[in-house]
Amino acid sequence: MNTAAAALTKLPSHRDVVYELRSVSKTFALRRIQALDKVDLRLERGSFSSVIGSSGCGKSTLLKIMAGLQSPSSGSVVLAGTPVMGTRRDIGMMFQHATLFPWRTTLENIVLPIEIRDGKHAARAKHEDARRLLELVGLKGFENVYPNELSGGMAQRAAICRMLITEPEVLLLDEPFSALDELSRDFMNMELQRICMAREATAFLVTHSIPEAVILSDTVYVMRPRPGRVVEEVPIDLPRPRTLDMITTPRFGALVEHIRSRLDKEAL
């Protein structure tokens, strides 16, 4: 096998299930709206999954339930063998905007979750871990820089470090690069893949972009609206590490077209 072929690896077919949702439904009683209907998800350790669907299909509600920010009306949500009853330190979240505090340095922003939960002494003890994370994401030397001196992409890299500092079991990503320009977004997606592979992280992404879901994911969950429900799990059989060159391949195009046609069908 040549070097290039050896570098393209597929993930193991059988891994531990880290996060599982069983028949999760959510109804907002005051508005009499059923946002989710019997959603089933299984996230295996080290896998990258995405959910995609039209606006209003319940993606944001699903992510809030997975994060412990909302409770389901029925069904079960289990992380690492324990029911999710609220926010937890083993759940990492990343949002559309980095939301770094402008009066804190990059390093201080990264250890903020530790400081909030465990105090300043515990946060200082995590400084070396934070420095290693900064090196992992390519921000070595920016420890004492303030957010207004960082570009959008650099700020999101710092946000990745802040998400990872608590060593979470699962990473929940809410369109983290949607505010970036297209070139920066593509680059950051490749960086996110590299970081997740290096950390063997389990990740779940909410996105409106079909190509983004395909290039990053092992599985894409397609949702229908009103009420939100998973109508198909699409396995992405592209080898890893993924590259942007794959976007032009016939297989990538076929996967994107399949998901788009399924979304179009559900929108009718």
From TrEMBL:
Top-level taxon of the source organism: Bacteria
Entry similarity comment: Belongs to the ABC transporter superfamily.
One Gene Ontology MF term: ATP binding
Organism encoding this protein: Ancylobacter aquaticus
First and last residue of the signal peptide: none
Domain ABC transporter residues, every copy: 19-250
Pfam families linked to this entry: ABC_tran
Database matches in InterPro entries: AAA+_ATPase, ABC_transporter-like_ATP-bd, ABC_transporter-like_CS, ABC_transporter_ATP-bind, P-loop_NTPase
Keyword annotations of the record: ATP-binding, Nucleotide-binding, Transport
Protein name: NitT/TauT family transport system ATP-binding protein
Matching PANTHER family: ALIPHATIC SULFONATES IMPORT ATP-BINDING PROTEIN SSUB (PTHR42788:SF13), TAURINE IMPORT ATP-BINDING PROTEIN-RELATED (PTHR42788)
